[in-house]
Amino acid sequence: MSRPPVQFFANLVGSTEEPASWARTREAEGWDGLGVADHIWSGRTTFSHWAVTLGQIATVTERVQLISCFANNLLRSPVEFAQAALTLQRASHGRFEAGLGAGWAREEAEGSGLVFPPAGERVTRYAEATEIVRRLLRDGRCSFTGAHYRIEVPAIGPVVEAPPPIVVAVGGPRSIRELGPVADRIEITFNAAATREGDLRRGALARLGRDHLAELLALARSHAPDVPKGIFLTIACGEDDVVASMRESGALGIPELAGTAREVADAVLALVEDDISRVQLTPATSTTLGAIAPFLPLAPRVATP
What sections of 38-114 are H helices per DSSP? Predict the structure, then answer.
């Protein structure tokens, strides 16, 4: 039996792009899904609110799946996230996927007046939040007492025909072991190992490489063999000095993820193993997604006269 085709999702990063125009362009290029990153700021990059942006995208697209990529559990209450997920599921007519992540940026959390817990506590909070969201989406209510959350929600809405699936971003042995089996989809974020201390450690990222991604996928197969799996990658396409520097330094974790559009597309496709059903691509430059689209197995939308 032939394997089903791999889905390709494009992620919107930062607040400079106009979401409606960006989404229409990506849908026309043939992407299967669109994601929106959840940050307030990162370095000098500012971000639009993930839920508002996805709501805007939902109104101007027809076919693509939509995903929060990934809602930051350090910044969001799991109850508020579940409410937003249900609202987006209704607004998109069933095309939304509830992507949730642990959160990793110390400066962003503390600068927003929030506590930045150590890595182990972040995973515990993340696991508890995922369970709370799962109950709210499945049952429409939740009573939960854990190490970090005490939740009593008698009802939540809006009511939708089918709840959005829960997608977890995992990048370490414990998060894969604890969250993988309870999710509807796993996204392997192999660069998570370079962010555990609360910032992006570029030297650590450059040392990760393909073997680290393979190790994480093996763990996911072991702990959640029947859960659909995807990989989350940052890429840069171009022939300028910025892209060349990223390739030379290994700044994206795998050097071949920076280069010409054809080179990067070949590198991405080479990472797609038999049980990988989705690839999420985050662009490191503003022209990357448009450049790589012709070299991926997308299904461009044919304009009607």
Answer: 50-60, 78-91, 106-111
